[in-house]
Structure formats: structure tokens, C-alpha cells
Please model this.
Amino acid sequence: MAVDQVNLRLDEGELRCIIGPNGCGKTTLFNLISGFYKPSEGQVLYNGQDITGKAVYTISHLGIGRKFQVPSVFNQLTVYENIRVPFYFRYRHSRSAGTDTEKSADQEMMGLLAKVNLSDRHQDLAINLAHGEKQWLEIGMVLASKPRLMLLDEPTAGMTVAETSKTAQLIRSISQETGISILVIEHDISFVREIAGRITVMYKGALFKEGSYEEIQADSEVREIYLGRRKQC
Model:
């Protein structure tokens, strides 16, 4: 089974990381939460509401935003236009909106781009961004949809050390400044150490361990199945 008897609760405003070896069910869990897969058994509850098997767009409307493993941006649109798509989908505004509204919206969108380190690139086509910058842009697009829960699947994959550090700062600031609940799948243990308040370990489709970074790092069973003897631990 890809996901088996996973009983996971995320508190409002919590920032948690999910780790585990490849194939243990982490991304499948995200697919179940966000509606890409319908579970054969069990329930997915969000804010007290049963969202099990609901359409992806319905779950998105309820306030769950997701960033995928591979950046999913509109390559032939500018960076600014990429942010504009989810922003206006949320507000249901059009280009014919009043000047004051347009000005306010522009300021908010530029503020989002500044938060994800891309305000200087706002006129560039997304296809011309570096890989790490595309990762940031997708995080910005999720933020533009005003989620209450963010699902970030390997947000530092393919990043340089410097980009990874900036991403850790970005996710911490989002958590602290917005109160959005954030669930992060990640393999970079140094990154996990920087951001995680609590860590969930998955193994063979099930929850294996939960605890603080220090508790997980010191757990001999976790080290055996996943962490090994990496120096960064």
C-alpha cells in the first residue's frame, strides 16, 4: 500500500516537515490531501470538513495550496503575470477593474514578488529563470492564492546552497508572518533542521516516528532506515 493507516494532524499555524526514504508514500499523501488521488479507505478532514475525494479545484477553493516537486509555472508568461494568474483567480477581478483597485492589486503582487526574491525579475519570462528562482516563483503563486494550508513538495530540490538557505528563511518568514499552516516534504536534512518545529517520518506508507529534530536525529531506528551516518545530522 502506498499510504497505510496514516493518522496525521496538523495544527493551525504549524510548520512541519515530512521525511522518509524514496517510495515511502510522502507525495502520495499530498496527492490524497489535495484531491489528485481518492483514498480507497479513510478520510481527509480539513478545518472540520470532510474533503475526501473532492475535486482538486474544490479543495483549492477551500484554502489548500500546493507546490509540486517539479516547478509548475507558466514559462511563456512573465514572472509578474505568473503571480497575477492565481491572484486574480482568487479575487475574480478583471483588467477593467477600477484604477484604485488595480493600483492596490499591483502593490500587493509586487510585495509577493519581493517576498520570494523576484521583484527585480518581474518583467522577465519565467522560462528564463534559474531553477531555484522557478521554485520561489511557484511558492509565490501559492501565496497569491491566499491559502490557509500550504503543501510544499521538496521546495529546495535542485537548488544551490545559497538558494536553499534563502528558501529556509522564506518559509520561516511565511510561517511567522502569516500564520499559514505549512507541511513540507524534504530530503535535505540540514534544511529540515533549519525550519522544522516538528518532524514526521514515513516508512513503507505508514507513519514511523514523530518528534523534534533532536529526537528524530537521535533515534536509532530512524537513522537505520533513512538518516544513516550523514555528517549533516
